[in-house]
Design goal:
By secondary structure, the chain is α/β, with parallel strands linked by helices. About 50% of the residues lie in helices and about 15% in strands.
Length: about 300
């Protein structure tokens, strides 16, 4: 794999860390980002630069993308990757994308004798730096097997998992995100129930928290509320619509996700989430809906 030229499109908080790891491992890497300022660390580490996603696609045999939303990835794939795809070329989506779009575009790449793998990741920039990302793969098993060593540069070998045909990686990423998001939302709502009845967060934390299992997670969330960081307990709001969309396409309901998504959208406040994406904070929506008797103050991070 090191003899093969590889490319990476998208050098945000995740992509920039991936680029540095690939370069440190000795890979011949070409990079592109719409924001030229993000290129500097990769250039300093030895990366080659492309002037566009299309140009990068024409220069390398394996193209990876780390883009911030499903819509952006679909747009780039349709307008700049697919038109220049060549037989034998491999495309790897490392971001979170609506599964049915992955399946649709995988077929389009296949018609050009190219391969699309969906390999979304979990673990954040620290996971990349430490080489212990969770990676969920969908698509051609043969191509996945050929790429495992490349994935091992940024991921935990025990957590680089082939999940099934195209779109399967995105589905398992959905399981991952919903587990985190719905869990965090449940703890926030529980805290809001106590606060809404006049109980101090400190008392709730001390009484209900603990050192292991769900009590430890609850205490972590409650502590953030106590520190006026409740709006920064993220429930994966920017991605919930992806999972709702996929469920609708498959003809079933995910009612807790629907309720959470709709409830968050009741409030106009938008804050950046841990990946810099626009997010409607669940805690804000809860505090606007549930307040102690006589509380006329504005809802805040607490």
């Amino acid at each position: 794999m090191k003899n093969r030229k590889i490319g990476l499109i998208g050098l945000g908080s995740m992509g920039s860390e991936m680029a540095l790891k690939f370069l440190a491992a000795g890979h011949d890497l070409t990079v592109y980002d719409i924001n030229p300022e993000r290129l500097a660390p990769s250039i300093s580490a030895g990366a080659k630069i492309a002037d566009s996603s299309a140009e990068l696609t024409q220069k390398v045999g394996l193209v990876m993308t780390s883009l911030r939303s499903s819509d952006i990835w679909v747009s780039v794939a349709e307008s700049e990757l697919l038109p220049h795809a060549e037989p034998g070329q491999v495309f790897i989506d490392l971001g979170t994308t609506t599964a049915h779009q992955i399946r649709r575009l995988a077929e389009a790449f296949s018609e050009k004798s190219a391969t699309l793998l969906d390999v979304p990741v979990s673990g954040g920039p620290n996971g990349i730096r430490n080489g212990n990302l969770h990676m969920f793969a969908g698509g051609c098993r043969e191509q996945f097997d050929r790429c495992v060593l490349l994935f091992s540069v940024i991921g935990d070998p025990e957590r680089i998992v082939y999940c099934g045909p195209s779109g399967s990686g995105q589905i398992v990423k959905g399981v991952n995100q919903l587990t985190m998001g719905l869990g965090a939302a449940a703890y926030l709502e529980a805290v809001a129930f106590g606060v809404g009845n006049g109980i101090e967060v400190e008392a709730i934390c001390q009484a209900v928290g603990g050192e292991a299992g769900w009590r430890q997670h609850f205490e972590s969330v409650a502590n953030q509320v106590q520190q006026e960081k409740g709006n920064h307990v993220y429930v994966k709001f920017p991605e919930l619509c992806y999972f709702l969309d996929e469920a609708e396409h498959q003809g079933y309901e995910i009612p807790l996700t629907r309720a959470l998504y709709d409830f968050c959208r009741r409030e106009e406040l938008i804050v950046p989430d841990n990946m810099g994406r626009d997010s409607h904070p669940f805690w804000r929506a809860l505090r606007c809906a549930v307040r102690p008797s006589g509380d006329k103050t504005e809802a805040s991070g607490t």
